[in-house]
């Protein structure tokens, strides 16, 4: 089971670090992908990291501002979000699998950016 955490209320330009932790399983062999979803909109890809952490890929909307990393010893993947914008206000989800093929979804965490 995956659980995203670390969301909260911040101001534009602030930083926030999300965590995606696995319980009951080891996901060190899985690619982990972050998605986000705004109310009434489809879930969209944010970032992905390979099982080793050696490969990462970002959506154009967050590239240069967000950074994904992982600590397999802690069964945790992180999403460091810098220079947050109003449009980053959404629910963030982590999942095992790639952007095209999700294996398991985790519970989301709300990020709210205010001006």
* H and E string: EEEEEEEEEEE
Distance between the termini: 34 Å
Q: Which strand-content bin applies to the residues?
A: over 45%
| Strand-pairing-aware structural class | mainly beta
Radius of gyration, in Å, reads 13 Å
Assembly form of the protein: single chain
Count of helix runs:
0
Tell me roughly what share of residues is in helical segments: under 10%
**How many individual β-strands?**
11
Task: Explain what you see.
With 115 residues, the chain is mostly beta strands. 0% of the residues lie in helices and 51% in strands. The protein has strands spanning 2-5, 9-11, 16-22, 32-37, 44-49, 56-58, 66-71, 76-81, 90-97, 102-105, 109-114. β5 and β6 (56-58) form a beta hairpin. The protein is globular, with a radius of gyration of 13 Å. The model has no long low-confidence stretch (mean pLDDT 94).
Index terms:
0% helix; 115 residues; seven-stranded mixed beta sheet; four-stranded antiparallel beta sheet; mainly beta
Please summarize what this structure is:
The chain is an all-beta fold. The protein contains no helices and 11 strands.
Please specify the SSE layout and strand pairing.
Blueprint: E1 2-5, E2 9-11, E3 16-22, E4 32-37, E5 44-49, E6 56-58, E7 66-71, E8 76-81, E9 90-97, E10 102-105, E11 109-114
